[in-house]
Amino acid sequence: MAYFWVNESQEYLQSLGFGTELPGANDHAQVPGFGTSLEAGSIGEAWGDYLAVSVGAYADAKYGWPAKADLACVADWDSASYSDAPHCLRRIDSDKTYADREGEVHADGEIWSRALFDIRGKLGARTADRIIVNAQFGFAPDTSFEDAAVTTIATAQKMYGKGAADAVRKAFQDREIPGV
C-alpha cells in the first residue's frame, strides 16, 4: 500500500501542475533542511496530515470510491487499535488557535492544518492546494507560523488575486496566527 499511496500523492501533485508549469515545479526538495524550529516542524506535520486528506479525496474521486464521511479524520485506519471511535490519528478541523500551542509538533500542527482545511473549504481543493504547495517553496527551514502565513497569503494574491488572498488571510486570522 505504501507504493500505491506514494504514487497517488505524486500523481495528485502533478495534476496540480507541479512537475510541469508551476514555478519551482522541478525542484525535488522544496526547502532543504525544513523543520529546524518547533513551528516549522509543526507546519511540516500539519502538511503531512492535510496532504493525506487531499490525496485520499483525490483517490476516492479518481477510482469512484465512496467519499469519506468524515474528511477531516486523518489515518482512521491506523488508530483503530488505540483510540475510541471515531478512530482518528489526528483531525484537521480542530478549533485550536495559536494561543493553544502545546510545544509538540503533532498537537501544534493541528492549528496549521485547520487553516489549510479552511482554505480548501473556501477556495476548493485544486485552487487551495496549488496555493499551499507553491507557497511552501518560499518557506525558510525554520519558518514561523507568521512568516509561513504571510508567504501563503502573498502566494494566493499572486496566483489568484485579492479574493483568494482574503480567503487565505481569514483562515489564518481565524487560527489567531500573529501578523496576519
Précis, in short:
The chain is mainly α and 180 residues long.
Structure write-up:
- With 180 residues, this protein is mainly α.
- The radius of gyration is 16 Å and the shape is globular.
- It has helices at residues 2-15, 38-63, 105-123, 125-136, 145-160, 162-174; strands spanning 73-74, 90-91.
Reading side by side through the largest sheet, how are the strands ordered? 1-2
Number of strands: 2
Major sheet details: 2 strands, antiparallel
Reading the helices and strands in chain order gives HHEEHHHH
Helix content: 55-70%
| Gyration radius over CA | 16 Å
Low-confidence stretches: none
Q: Which strand-content bin applies to the residues?
A: under 5%
In whole angstroms, the N-to-C terminal distance is 40 Å
Supply the key terms.
globular; single chain; 6 helices; mainly alpha
Describe the protein's topology.
Blueprint (H helix, E strand, L loop, with lengths): L1 H14 L22 H26 L9 E2 L15 E2 L13 H19 L1 H12 L8 H16 L1 H13 L6
Antiparallel strand pairs: 1-2
Helix pairs in contact: 1-2, 2-3, 3-4, 3-6, 4-5, 5-6
